[in-house]
Amino acid sequence: MKILHIAPFNMAGVPIELVLAERDLGHYSRLVTLSRDWRGYREDICLELPWIDSPLLRFAKRFVSDRRVLQKKNVRESPEQIPRVWKPRGWPEQKLVAFRDWLWEREIQPSLKKYRLLDFDIYQLDGGLGFLRSGKIIRQLKQMGKKIVCCYLGSDLRLRGVISAIDEISDLNLTTEFDLQKLHPHIHHIFFPFDARRFQVKTTENKVLRICHSPTDRQAKGSEQIIAVVKELEKRYPVRLVLIENVPHAKALDIKAKCDIMIDQLGELGYGISSLEALAGD
Fold first, then answer.
1. For 2-193, CATH number?
2. Is residue 243 within 8 Å of 274, Cβ to Cβ?
3. Helices (H), 78-189
4. Helix axes 55-64, 91-114, angle to 10 degrees
5. Quick one: CA dihedral 276, 280, 281, 282, positive or negative?
6. How far apart are CA 257 and CA 229, in angstroms?
7. Which of 15, 160, 220, 252 is the most buried (most CB within 10 A)?
8. Over its length of 282 residues, how does the chain's per-residue pLDDT go in tens digits?
9. Contact at 8 Å (CB) between 216 and 223?
C-alpha cells in the first residue's frame, strides 16, 4: 500500500517514525513536510514553503489570531464545542490565511507532479492540516477516491481545532495523546511510534545525579515549578539540574544520554517522545 504523510513540520520526529514503521511493515510510505523543524529532525520530502513559522508571521499572529490558540497550557481543555473548529478571528486573519494559501498553492502544484504525490492510496495528515488551510487539495484527493486519515498530535486539536473542510471528509481520526480522545467524538488512540533500537542503555550513574528537563515550551510543561524544586534539591543532595533548551535534536539526545533522571512535565497531559527517548537510554 502507498501511504503519504503530510505535516507542517516533522514534529518531534513523530511523522517520520510513523513512516519508518510502515516501511518495516512492507508499505511504500513517504513524508512531505511544508517546512523544516530547526531542531534538525530527519526529513524526506520538504517543500520549504515560506510564511509558516517566520518571525514576521509570529508577530502578525499576535494581532490577528485568537490569543487562546497561541497560549499553550499544561491542563486539559474543556471546549464548549467538540470538536473545536478553527475559524479565522476576523477579516485580517481570513485575508492573511487566504493570501498564504494562494502563495503556497503556486509552489505546491509543481511538487505534486515532481514527486508524484497524487499517486498514493492513503493520505495521513499529521496535525490534521494537509497542504492548505482551505483543504482544497485534500478535498480533490477525496474526490479521486483516496482515503484520508487525520492524526492529531497535541495542540493542533487542543487549541486550534479541526479544519472543518478536512474533518468532514476524514475517513479515520487518530491521536497519540490520551486527553484528545475527549476532544473529538470519532477518534482512536494509538501509541507513539518509537524505535528503541536507536538507543544504547546507560549502565552507570553519575556521582552527582544529573536531573534533566527538556521543555519546548516552559508554560506548557510547568517548567518554572520543576526548576524551582530541583534547585532546592541541589542545596540538600548531590544532584544537578540540566536544562535542555534551544538546541538541535541530536545534541539534546547526547545530553539526555549523560543524565540519570528526567522530568518531562507537570500537569494533566500525557508523556511525549522526549520521555521515551530518556527511558530508552536509561
1. 3.40.50
2. no
3. 91-114, 136-143, 155, 164-167
4. 140
5. positive
6. 22
7. 15
8. 999 999 999 999 999 999 999 999 999 999 999 999 999 999 999 999 998 877 776 777 776 676 666 566 666 777 788 999 999 888 888 998 999 999 999 999 999 999 999 999 999 999 999 999 999 999 999 999 999 999 999 889 998 999 999 999 999 999 999 999 999 999 999 999 999 888 888 888 999 999 999 998 888 888 999 999 999 999 999 999 999 999 999 999 999 999 999 999 887 777 888 899 988 876
9. no
Secondary structure, 3-state, 230-251: HHHHHHHCCEEEEECCCCCHHH
Q: What would the grid cell of residue 259 be?
A: 543524565
All structural domains of the chain with their residue ranges = 2-193, 197-280
Whole-prediction pTM? 0.90
Residue 1, all three cell numbers: 500500500
Grid cell digits, residue 73: 497550557
| DSSP three-state, residue 261 | strand
Nearest alpha carbon to residue 192 among 271, 269, 130: 271
Alpha-carbon gap, residue 180 to 238, rounded angstroms: 39
DSSP state letters, 93-114 = HHHHHHHHHHHHHHHHHHHHHH
